[in-house]
């Protein structure tokens, strides 16, 4: 009887021991599984974080690309040399990634260079004729070659200038008006400087001569007219005293410190309007348009007005 009881007790003890071992094994297995799962979650979180970081960096790279330096080439009438040079310094604060490269010359020369394939983003002419000669939407009688360079949506009249009669510092001829100039040209007592026929200021001067009934060819043949390939050359002749007078813009008279004795009226030569436009061949049309928009701000107009330009009404 005692042997059976002892055997039963040993069997119970063995069962409890085995149960305990099984429980310990299961617990250990569960803990291992939980640790592995946690490790997987951490790895997944790290991977997701790396992907988010990469995605966050991509826009920054695109922004850097957008801010890369861009060169905008501007062809502008010679009479804008001083004002645009000053404005270009101001623009560095507005668009530090944009480098403005200027080509200043007569509008006729600039038009020809554009037509022949010169790199240009923005064209600012001292007359409508030269712009119209590049604009497919202009009168065919003006755009005789059917040239199509002007982005019509960008074209705008930005400035108005005035045509003036300037004399040398000593004014030995005693000229005080266009009337005096016309009379002196007719009797051959003076030498007058004017722009060539392909230069806007020269075209305005031709209209003034026509207004007074004077024949340019006859005057030139008699030796009373001296020509300049652009308005700056005409102004230089006046400043150096190689002529008695000359017809130039108000702005150039200001920049050269010349004596203005008279202003031409609209009846004499019409309005002097400066049109501007981005070209269809522009390498950087958006940046060119941005600069053109800036030129029309009050800040820039103040610079233009200081030398005699005015806004177009």
The tally of strands reads 10
Number of helices: 12
Q: Output the helix-strand order.
A: HEHEHEHEEHEHHEHEHEHEHH
Rounded mean pLDDT score: 85
CATH class categorisation of the largest domain = Alpha Beta
Total discrete domains: 2
| CATH architecture type of the largest domain | 3-Layer(aba) Sandwich
For the CA atoms, what is the radius of gyration?
40 Å
Helix content: 40-55%
Uncertain regions spanning at least 5 consecutive residues = 1-33, 35-39, 47-65
Tell me the name of the CATH homologous superfamily of the largest domain.
Periplasmic binding protein-like II
The CATH topology of the largest domain is what? D-Maltodextrin-Binding Protein, domain 2
Instruction: Report the structural category.
Output: alpha/beta
Q: How far apart are the first and last residues' alpha carbons, in Å?
A: 129 Å
Q: What is the general shape?
A: globular
Biggest sheet architecture? 5 strands, mixed
Proportion of residues in extended strands? 15-25%
Q: Strand order across the biggest sheet?
A: 2-1-3-10-4
């Amino acid at each position: 009887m005692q042997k059976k009881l002892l055997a039963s007790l040993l069997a119970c003890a063995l069962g409890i021991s085995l149960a305990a071992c099984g429980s310990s094994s299961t617990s250990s297995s569960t803990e291992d599984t939980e640790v592995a799962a946690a490790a997987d979650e951490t790895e997944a979180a790290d991977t997701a974080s790396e992907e988010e970081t990469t995605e966050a960096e991509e826009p920054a790279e695109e922004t850097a690309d957008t801010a890369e330096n861009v060169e905008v080439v501007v062809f502008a009438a010679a009479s804008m040399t001083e004002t645009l040079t000053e404005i270009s310094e101001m623009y560095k604060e507005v668009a530090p990634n944009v480098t403005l490269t200027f080509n200043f010359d007569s509008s006729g020369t600039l038009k020809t260079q554009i037509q022949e394939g010169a790199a240009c983003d923005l064209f600012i002419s001292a007359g409508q004729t030269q712009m119209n000669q590049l604009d497919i939407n202009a009168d065919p009688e003006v755009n005789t070659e059917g040239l199509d360079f002007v982005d019509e949506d960008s074209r705008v009249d930005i400035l108005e200038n005035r045509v003036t009669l300037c004399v040398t510092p000593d004014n030995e001829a005693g000229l005080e008006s266009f009337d005096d100039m016309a009379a002196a040209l007719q009797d051959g007592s003076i030498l007058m400087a004017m722009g060539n026929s392909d230069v806007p200021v020269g075209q305005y001067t031709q209209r003034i001569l026509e207004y007074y009934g004077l024949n340019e060819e006859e005057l030139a043949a008699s030796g009373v007219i001296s020509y300049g390939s652009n308005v700056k050359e005409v102004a230089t002749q006046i400043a150096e005293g190689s002529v008695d007078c000359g017809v130039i813009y108000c702005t150039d008279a200001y920049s050269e410190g010349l004596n203005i004795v008279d202003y031409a009226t609209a009846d004499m030569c019409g309005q002097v309007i400066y049109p501007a436009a981005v070209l269809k061949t522009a390498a950087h049309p958006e940046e060119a348009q941005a600069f053109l928009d800036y030129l029309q701000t009050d800040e820039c107009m103040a610079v233009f007005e200081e030398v005699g330009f005015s806004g177009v009404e």
